[in-house]
Write a structure and sequence with these properties.
The two termini are 34 Å apart. The chain has helices at residues 16-31, 58-66, 68-81, 100-109, and strands at 2-10, 36-43, 49-55, 82-91. Helix content is 45%, strand content 31%. It has a four-stranded antiparallel beta sheet.
Length: 110
């Protein structure tokens, strides 16, 4: 798995409707890309947004980064939507997990 984390803050003068249209179109386009696994976005109370996308591998994530329509919208983002952003990308992230449902199922079997 290849993980991409996009932290950003929007400009105060953002055209929210235009941004929403572009964001919706980009999510739909990303979901159709080879190697796409998942996408979620979270907004904090202070206005920072964290978007997380998961890809099958680095090549799939880089392919998305070079997709022509996505590249156009990235430029629009820098020009009109974002005050700042940071992109984090990592191959083979170290993953730890816990799932209460699995623990309950194991307890029920005992």
């Amino acid at each position: 798995m290849f993980l991409v984390v996009f932290r950003n803050r929007k400009r105060s003068d953002i055209d929210a409707l235009a941004y929403a249209r572009d964001a919706e179109a980009m999510e739909a386009l990303a979901r159709a890309q080879p190697g796409f696994l998942a996408f979620k976005s979270y907004a904090s109370e202070d206005g920072e947004v964290v978007a997380i996308s998961e890809w099958s591998d680095a090549a799939a994530a880089r392919g998305w980064g070079r997709q022509a329509e996505h590249a156009l919208v990235q430029g629009r983002g820098r020009a009109a939507y974002y005050e700042n952003y940071t992109l984090f990308a990592c191959d083979s992230p170290r993953i730890h997990g816990f799932d209460r449902r699995e623990e309950c199922e194991e307890d029920a079997k005992r």
